[in-house]
Specification:
The chain is mainly alpha-helical. Helices cover 63% and strands 4% of the residues. The chain has 3 domains: 91 residues, Fumarase C, Chain B, domain 1, CATH 1.10.275; 232 residues, Fumarase C, Chain A, domain 2 (Up-down Bundle); 62 residues, Orthogonal Bundle (Ribonucleotide Reductase Protein R1, domain 1), CATH 1.10.40. The chain contains 19 helices and 6 strands. Strand 1 and strand 2 form a beta hairpin.
Length: 483
């Protein structure tokens, strides 16, 4: 078949990074199988596996296997799989052709889950580390943005209706806070991952007890394999596979990151509609094929699209765990091949997009100021009301007077398309005691942002700084311009 007619995953040509694509590539997967076979044989040899007085495994067998870890002939594997209809056995046979000395001891005592499940855990651990690096960098970039704009007043929106002002930097801290939660959860899950180890057909390690003729050595074999593969331990109990609860926990982290990213990108989409904040737009970028003036938030929209896929797929991981029968069923296999790999690739793409967008956010200060100026006369009414009450006026009477003026002004703005002149109306009522100097003071945006600036400083210094310091070796990442 012509290569142009072959199906290629969108993640491999458009979205995910080369780093994440490698982790879920066939070469990484199957070379990890071989590393696990080497580790199993090496551990069995070190624990003194013998047949009578003769060692079952010799060092030259191990050396031979190590020489061919990355030497995989996929054509031969395919021939065997067409014959056996079993992927693990196909690779065992092909590996045996390359390693005639070791052929008889490859996979000794193990079941297929030894390589498939341990490899999945290893890949998920490595993939979580990639995501962690990107999360840390995203938090760092957004923190600089929050600091830069911590004092820039902006309208807040509740129900997407103008509300009490905040600052651009304060709004960014809300995004950062979500990603901090995700980072802490990711760290916890990653640190708690364990290997399946060498548990045998139903998790009892019966085959290894038979091999060693000992109750303790199978446990020691597990720990040795874990140590050699860079893990602190294996799961103490399992069926043939590790519990698919592990997958659901990992996928819940992917879903959580996707959710945080979608929240932020949706905010940017709304702000870009208002022309207050926009995602980066390159010199020759085309916003619309029909409307040349448009600058569509396509990258934020892509994040939302990918996030929807990840979030919805989380239910699949949970269903897979729920539907496993007793010590093992195989209805998990095809689902996991798709859901886990595509989930990681999607979140990888999401974080790349979020880093790229955050690095080049365009803040249109004049538009922000204009929107604030248009709405500020409505915002000042609460302060005027409180000041009049302090000066001995009846709250209900003042409230009613301001309410009438506000409704008149709202009609003027909405129906007649005229400017908001509420502050002129209010200042004309002598009983309210608002002269021009006092009105100018009321109309200063800084008066209405509360302690937004202090909140940003406190958050960055107390919640974020220590996290970035702990992970400073991960900082420094460049994301190419997204297609």
């Amino acid at each position: 078949m012509d290569d142009k007619n072959k199906y290629i995953s969108p993640f491999s040509i458009r979205y995910a990074s080369k780093e994440m694509q490698f982790l879920f590539s066939p070469n990484n997967k199957y070379s990890t199988w071989r590393k696990l076979w080497v580790t199993l044989a090496e551990s069995e040899m070190e624990l003194g596996l013998k047949e009578g007085s003769k060692p079952v495994i010799e060092k030259d067998m191990i050396d031979e296997m190590k020489e061919h870890i990355n030497d995989i002939d996929y054509d031969i594997v395919s021939e065997y799989e067409n014959k056996f209809h079993h992927d693990v056995m196909s690779h065992i046979y092909e590996f045996g052709l390359k390693c005639p000395k070791a052929k008889g001891i490859i996979h000794l005592g193990a079941t297929s889950a030894y390589v498939t499940d341990n490899t999945d855990i290893i890949i998920m651990r490595d993939a979580l580390k990639v995501l962690k690096k990107k999360l840390v960098n995203l938090i760092s970039i957004l923190s600089k943005f929050a600091c830069e704009y911590k004092a820039l007043p902006t309208l807040s929106y509740t129900h997407f209706q103008p509300a009490q002002p905040s600052t651009v930097g304060k709004r960014a801290t809300l995004w950062i806070q979500d990603f901090l939660v995700d980072l802490k959860d990711l760290d916890y899950i990653c640190s708690s991952l364990k290997l399946l180890g060498s548990k045998g057909t139903t998790g009892t390690q019966a085959s290894f007890k038979e091999l060693f003729g000992d109750d303790y050595l199978p446990v020691k074999l597990d720990k040795l394999i874990a140590e050699k593969m860079g893990f602190s331990d294996t799961y103490t109990v399992s069926g043939q596979t590790y519990s698919r609860k592990v997958d659901s926990r990992v996928y819940n982290i992917l879903s959580a990151i996707a959710s945080s990213a979608a929240k932020m990108s949706n905010d940017i989409r709304l702000l870009q509609h208002l022309r207050e904040i926009e995602e980066p737009f390159t010199k020759h970028q085309i916003g619309s094929s029909a409307m040349p003036y448009k600058r569509n938030p396509i990258l934020s929209e892509r994040i939302d699209s990918l996030a929807r896929f990840v979030i919805s797929s989380a239910t699949s991981a949970n269903f897979t765990h729920a539907s496993q029968w007793l010590e093992r069923t195989l209805d998990d296999s095809a689902n996991r091949r798709i859901v886990i790999s595509e989930g990681f690739l999607a979140v990888d793409a999401i974080l790349d997009l979020e880093i790229y967008i955050s690095s080049g956010l365009v803040v249109n200060k004049k538009i922000i100021e204009k929107h604030l100026k248009d709405e500020l006369p409505f915002m000042i009414t609460e302060n005027i009301l409180m000041d009049n009450v302090k000066n001995g006026k009846d709250r209900q009477n003042v409230h009613e007077e301001i309410r009438k003026l506000s409704l008149e002004t709202l009609k003027r703005v909405k129906e007649d398309g005229l400017d908001n002149d509420l502050f002129l109306k209010i200042s004309s009522i002598k009983e309210l005691g608002i002269d021009k100097a006092k009105m100018d003071e009321y109309l200063k945006p800084d008066k209405y942002i509360g302690i937004s600036i202090q909140q940003v400083d406190f958050f960055l210094n107390n919640d974020v700084k220590s996290i970035l310091e702990e992970n400073k070796e991960l900082l420094g990442i460049e994301i190419p311009i997204a297609k």
